[in-house]
Amino acid sequence: MVEEMLSLGFKRIELSHGIRLSLVPGILQAVEEGIVQISSVHNFCPLPNIVQHAAPNLFQPSSKDSRELNLWHSHSKQTLDFAVKVGADRIVMHSGSVSFFFSSPEVRLEKWIDESEISAHELSDSQAFLKRRDKAMKAIRKVAVNTIPRIKENYEKLLPEVKERGLKLCLENREGMEEMPIDTEYDNFLESLGEPEHALYWHDTGHAQIKHQLGLIDHREHLEKMSPRLGGFHLHDVSEAGRDHQVPGTGTIDFNMIAEFVRPEHTLVLELSPRLTTEEVIASRDYIIGVLG
Fold first, then answer.
1. How far apart are CA 42 and CA 293, in angstroms?
2. 93: domain CATH number?
3. What Å distances lie between residue 206 and 12, 49, 144, 242, 251, CA to CA?
4. Which among 57, 153, 159, 197 is placed 20 to 30 Å from 124, CA to CA?
5. Stated pTM of the model
6. Which residues have a Cβ under 8 Å from the Cβ of 119 and sit 6 or more positions away?
7. What average pLDDT is seen over the chain?
8. How far apart are CA 97 and CA 166, in angstroms?
């Protein structure tokens, strides 16, 4: 796996939430031999041995279940220890979601979008969509009032472990409307955690663009607001149909705008669909080097 990425011209890689335990010895050997550097690690990494597929939301810090929270903490701590072993200082985190006893407002909205056949890039111009979107967000915000304090409490329990190891938790913006924190309140949430050296923001360009297409944020304004706590980027494009993890430069994202916010201390990670060809991966690399390099 590492050799393939090196052959494509990458010298630093992120270890994702799909790394099985069986891959760990080879990765550690590659790191120890200086073959590759690890830029960042995505929680949970390596995967808990009970699963064999990518599962970043297997345990959530938003859960009401104390058993799940204990598992979230213990597996997050294992990720921190693994990051130390591979020499990475940044841990990309998902922060959980709100839950509903009956049907999800987001699922109902997505069903309406599918049935309406409105293209993703046209949604923010549709009054019918905006009315339904605002109704969904009202329900989500109502539940978030009690969910956000739980997330904050669980991050506060983990942060001493992060500080002890000299690491940085990087909270990733998400594509789902029900995933927390709500984008417009992200800066306030991070500020409430304190620890600006150890609790950072991770900007996923595709996720932000999806929220931009939904009219929930303005991509540039969101980056401007979050830039003081910015630790890194997941870079990928979004098609007009709303499909993310596409080749940068082929979709709806203005990467020249993104480039304005990139600083030398940031970590840049190409996060592409596994369906892309080798040629498309190389094209993505070259495009990003040209625009952001």
1. 24
2. 3.20.20.150
3. 21, 29, 23, 9, 10
4. 57
5. 0.97
6. 240, 241, 242
7. 96
8. 27
